[in-house]
Prior knowledge:
Oligomer: single chain
Largest sheet: 8 strands, parallel, barrel
Shape: globular
Distance between the termini: 39 Å
Strand order of the largest sheet: 3-4-7-8-9-10-13-14
Number of strands: 14
Order of helices and strands: EEEHEEEHEHEHEHEEEHEHEHH
Low-confidence stretches: none
Number of helices: 9
Strand content: 15-25%
Mean pLDDT: 91
Radius of gyration: 19 Å
Amino acid sequence: LAPLIPFMGGRPDLSKPLKRVISFSDHSNSLYFGCPIILAAGANKTAERIRDYANVGFGGITVGTATRHYREGNTHRPRIGFLENDRAIHNSMGLNNEGVEVIAKRVDSQLVKAHKAGLCVGISVAETPGLTDPEEKLKDIIESFSITYKAADYIEINVSCPNTGESRVDLDMSFSERIFTEIMNFRNTLGLRKAVYAKLSPDLSERHLIAIMEMLVRTGVNGVVVGNTYPSAKISELPVTTKHEDLTPLRADGDCGGMSGRPLYENMVWNVKYIREHYPKMSIIACGGIDHGYKVYDLIKMGVDAVQCYSVVAFRWMAAHAMRNELMDAMLNDGYKSLGEYDDRNPR
């Protein structure tokens, strides 16, 4: 209803001060965001009404996650739980979606209108759960990538989803390298070079993070999204008041899915700082516990290109608009009138 009711603030903000451009060292197509606040994958799984997300304040959106074919997802109910005291959510949706061809077609038909509203549009893709043969898995994700590549501004490869009841791809380094090698080889055969991001899990050890980052550099991936939801089985590692035994089971096997929201912020910041220090050419989109514009500004000062958020919309009214105002306030306090001015004085 936001586009229809003016006092709700439902309109795109096309002012220039918060516009963000991400450029890449390999001369991949630059990305243009109305502001550096992106709606994370999982919020709009259908790719319907994309432009409306500009009305509620976002400067970009990642739709999906999409798989090669239709998926019903986790049939257990409930599939989502709220931890209001911790300002967190845990979910086990199971990658429910209508299939990559349907999603890519919808994105393609709406892309021009989305751009006019200041939105940059990406598509998140993942391998289809249930496949066991490595060659079949590889073919599956390459097909999904090739279909979405024709439609989106950028592609996000989700190798870290904890919500399907199967092993995460990012835990198998040799297979992960095959995936990204094939994806980037395919991309490099095309005339149009669109950016490719890898979505990482936030629970990686330093050793594992280094191994993944070295692999992504070798294969030529443009950037990383740091990170996905945090496996709820490791909730004791997060600053939360809730205990694992208090969580609502979200799958028939008793698993409680992946955690998102404020408790992930500190862990995410550590990962961002480490990656920025050791891999300065890698584009970083921060994701996890970002629920205030001052946090966005802090992350920009750490060297991130943009941020993604999702859970905050459950806890703050018109969250993206509020965060834009807070980001602008934080910049003005430091003497900057726009992100462009900040970038000119602090080259990334």
